[in-house]
Amino acid sequence: MKYIIVLGDGMADRPIDKLDGQTPLKYAKTPVLDRLSKMSEIGMVQTVPAGMKPGSDVANLAVMGYNPQENYSGRSPLEALSIGVPMEDTDIALRCNIVTISEEDKPFEEQVIIDHSSSEISTEDCAVLVDVVRKALQDEIYQFYVGTSYRHCLIWKKGRVVELVQPHDVLGQVIGQHLPEEETLLHMMKVSYELLKDHPINVERKKQGLNPANCCWFWGAGTKPQVSDFYEKTGKKGLMVSAVDLLKGIAVGAHMGVAQVEGANGGLHTNYAGKVEAAVKGLTEDGYDFAYVHVEAPDEMGHQGSVERKVLAIEYLDEKVIGPICEKLEAAGEDYRLMVLPDHPTPICIRTHSSDSVPYLLYDSTAKEAHEWNYNEAEAQISGNFTAEGYKLIEKLFSK
């Protein structure tokens, strides 16, 4: 038996008037999920424990079977693992987004945050900008590391965990009240803005109608993570397939395999075929029992506030990921159990994460059920199936 989780990041939502009161998941054309749902268990799961912030870090840890209340030590340390940052026990890792803030003739504190992803800037362009910041600001205490796209890392040697605001939580707001209280971090943000706003890459981006990547934004501070070995925990040899450093970092900490997929960028037009190929090859040729296929696009479209693009991201997940994985495993003669779910909702109406429970689908190619339902939030809620502690959901997947 092979096991797969297909994780549509931020895929769950709330009813939207523009979609006739439906959620993007219910509105989207998803023929594969419609077909599978009739043969599957569906239900709801609470992936974010009460009192914890609804981040992809907390929620994905839970989906992978780790109790966030015991295993979570901060988001950025997990990403640091992914990009090979050597962390000491006394180090603090912080996410360093390269964001877009307004360039009005006003003091820094009065600017507005426009875009947490700088129009999903490429890793190649953003690495150039990070290098500019690094040359100006890096020293023995503060060290910058390049990640993927707009997502990068700052290591604060012998630092402390400080409360910092997630940029995607305050889009469209004046930044002053959301800036770090820690003076050095605030100073570095201000300097980065002066260094980057007129950089040639950003001048060209503005000419092309793209948001400039003009400021560092620090958040997600945490200590060196402690994630137990996935194989020792589950008895399954696992493979992570994701474009996102956070997910790769969880996998590294759990001693799972990590697929490197060229062209996988976390955006709407990622290399879906490459992700499918990596997952299927891992399961059918490379000896893996379990593949975790993470797709970031629905979450990004939720943050952008784009109803149409979020619907399209869900349709791509159905057409380009779930369908091909099922077809290829069946062609290979493999028995498999497939779980599909989001980690958390990213509702269009708030453009950030929420702590609401999310719908899951569990399909077993060897034990097909018979139902009339489709996979979406509303029907999953009335299915009667609910897992209150999200980290226990994976036990359902591995139950046979």
Explain what this protein looks like in three dimensions.
The chain is 34% helix and 18% strand. By secondary structure, it is α/β, with parallel strands linked by helices. The protein has an 8-stranded mixed β-sheet, with helices on both faces. Strands 3, 4, 5, 6 and 7 form a 5-stranded antiparallel β-sheet that branches.
Distance between the first and last residues' Cα:
8 Å
Sequence of secondary-structure elements:
EHHEHHHEEHEEHHEHEHEHEHHEEHEH
| Weakly predicted, low-confidence segments | none
Largest sheet: 8 strands, mixed
Assign the CATH superfamily of the largest domain. Answer: Alkaline Phosphatase, subunit A
Q: What's the mean pLDDT score?
A: 96
Total of DSSP H or I helical runs spanning 4+ residues: 15
As a percent range, the share of helical residues equals 25-40%
Computed over alpha carbons, the radius of gyration is 21 Å
Remind me, CATH topology of the largest domain?
Alkaline Phosphatase, subunit A
* Overall CATH architecture of the largest domain: 3-Layer(aba) Sandwich
Count of extended strands: 13
The share of residues in extended strands comes to 15-25%
Q: Write down the CATH class of the largest domain.
A: Alpha Beta
Domain module count: 2
